[in-house]
Design the sequence.
């Protein structure tokens, strides 16, 4: 069984109760249609298990098949500087029908990241090391596709339906 390596760190994006009994970690790609489908289920899971659950997201952009995955991840990190990572995370998945450079810019501006700030960040790749760190941790943890979930540090090899994730979280409780 694959384990999360490294375990959650202070720089990870986490929402939910710090002392939650269960930690759900997703390695995801903002351009991945399966991750977008899983996002709907994760939102339901978060609602169902709060305050027993905390959720963390790590970037795993599959750039060979999703050319905008990395710029989307960088855009989410630009929003994070403004304390708006989770709003950007949710908006990217919830606006899949309009996914593209114009959406990245529109969402960034809506969340307080100016066009010049975003363009500068994308051009300089200022957030690339953070995204690379997440990606490498995924590879070390046995991630080979998205979405991949870990529950309390152990890879969840089941599906990402609400029923599958809920059963695994119940078992962890």
Sequence:
């Amino acid at each position: 069984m694959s384990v999360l390596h490294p375990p959650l760190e202070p720089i990870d994006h986490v929402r939910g109760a710090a002392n939650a009994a269960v930690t759900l970690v997703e390695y995801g790609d903002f351009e991945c249609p399966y991750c977008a489908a899983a996002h709907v289920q994760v939102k339901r899971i978060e609602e169902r298990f709060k305050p027993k659950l905390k959720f963390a997201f790590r970037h795993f952009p599959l750039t060979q098949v999703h050319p905008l995955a990395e710029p989307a991840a960088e855009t989410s990190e630009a929003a994070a500087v403004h304390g708006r990572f989770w709003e950007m995370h949710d908006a990217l998945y919830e606006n899949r029908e309009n996914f593209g450079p114009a959406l990245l810019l529109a969402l960034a501006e809506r969340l307080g990241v100016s066009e010049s700030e975003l363009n500068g960040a994308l051009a300089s790749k200022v957030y690339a090391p953070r995204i690379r760190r997440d990606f490498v941790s995924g590879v070390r943890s046995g991630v080979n596709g998205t979405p991949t979930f870990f529950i309390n540090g152990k890879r969840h090899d089941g599906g990402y339906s609400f029923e599958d994730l809920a059963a695994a979280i119940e078992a962890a409780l």
